[in-house]
Predict the structure.
Amino acid sequence: MDLSEITREAVLDVIGECDQLGRGRFLERYGFEPARRYFLRHDGVLYDSKAIVGVAHRFVTGRPLAADQFSGGRETVGRLLDRLGFEVVVDEPAAPRRRLVQVLESLRGAKTPDGPARHQPITLLWAMGRAAGHRPRLVFWRDANTELRGLMREYGQPSSRPTPEFPILALTRTDVWELQGHVGGIPPAHGEPMAWLDEQNPSFGLATWAYELIASDESARSEAIAILGRRFFNGSLPEALLGEVGLRQLKRGDTPSAQDWSPLEAYLRLCQTVEAAEARGDHDRSTVSAAREQPVRSSASVKAVLIRSGGRCENPLCTGQPNDVNKDGEPILEVDHVHDRAKWGRDHPIQMIALCPNCHAIKTRGRTGEQLRELLLLEARARHSTWVSQV
Ligand SMILES: [Zn+2]
C-alpha cells in the first residue's frame, strides 16, 4: 500500500477530527485498535499513529484505509510521519499491574502539619472498594460527595478539611482516574471547583483498566493497599477504613482452594472455548436447516460475561442496582450482544455485556440507546482486554 501521497495537511485535519470525536470514538468509527507502540505526538498529545495515517489516506483516494489494508510500525507509518515533519514516539504501555503501582508510587498530595494529605488516597480506596465489590465504576458527584466527605472527615489528617472536590479533580492528572459527562474543560483542582461540580454533576471513578484489575486480581489489590498504607498512613491502612470502603482483606483461611478456578482463569478458559469454536467455523451458524440459518449463541460466551460482571450491571453509568435476585438466588442480569447477534454480531465476550433489565431496555428501545451502544462497545472491549492482558 502506497502511503507516500499523504500530506501534512491531511494528517493535521485527521488529528483535528480525532480531537473532536475523542480517541475511543475515533478508533471505533474507523475500526482501528489502540496503538501499542508507535504514537504520533502533536502539541503534547499522543495519537494512534496507524489510525491517523489510515484515515488521512481518505484525502488521496476518497476513502480511509482499513486497519488490515496496510501495516503500521516504524518502516511504514513511522517513516511517512517523520518525512512530514511529525514526531513519532515509541511508548510501550505497561501491563496494568505495573501501571497501577507506578501511579500509586508517584502520587503526590499536599503536605499538612500532620503528614501527607490523604484526600487522594482515600478517594482511590473508595473507588477500589467499588471495583472489589463489583459496583458500577462511575458515580455522579451528587451521589458520591457526601460519602467521600465523611470518609475524609474520619480518616483524613486532623488538620485538613474534608474536601472531596479537590482529589476528584486532581486525580484526573493520573492515568487511573476518569471524569466524564461534563461540558468544556476541567477547572484547576485548587480553584473553587465546588460550583462547577454542582452545576455539571460529572461522574467519576477508576479508569476501566484499573477497575478491572482491582475487581479481578486480589494480589494486585493487596499490593495497592500496601503502597497507600506505607506512603500515606504511617505504615498500614486502618482496618476500619478498609471495612468501610469494602476492601477488608480476606484472612488466610478464606482463600479459595487450588482446585477452584479463579474468575480470571474461568474467564480465559471460556474465551478459549469460544475462540476454538470460531476457528473451526462451527460457531457461526447452526446447520439444523440450511434454509433457516441461525447464528449460534454459545453458552460459554454468556458464562464468561457473567463472570466478568461479578454480578453487577456492566454499564458504567448504570444508576440502579437491583438488590433483588432471581429464584435461583442469582443476580438479574441479561447478557447482550452490543452488535446484535441476529445481525451476525460476533458471539464473543469482547462485544458482549451484562446489563440490568433497565439498562438493557434503554439500549434496545431508549431514546439514548445509540449513544449507550457506543459506550458499551468501548466498555466491553476495555474490560475484555484488561482481563486477558493480566496473564
Ligand atoms: Zn444497569
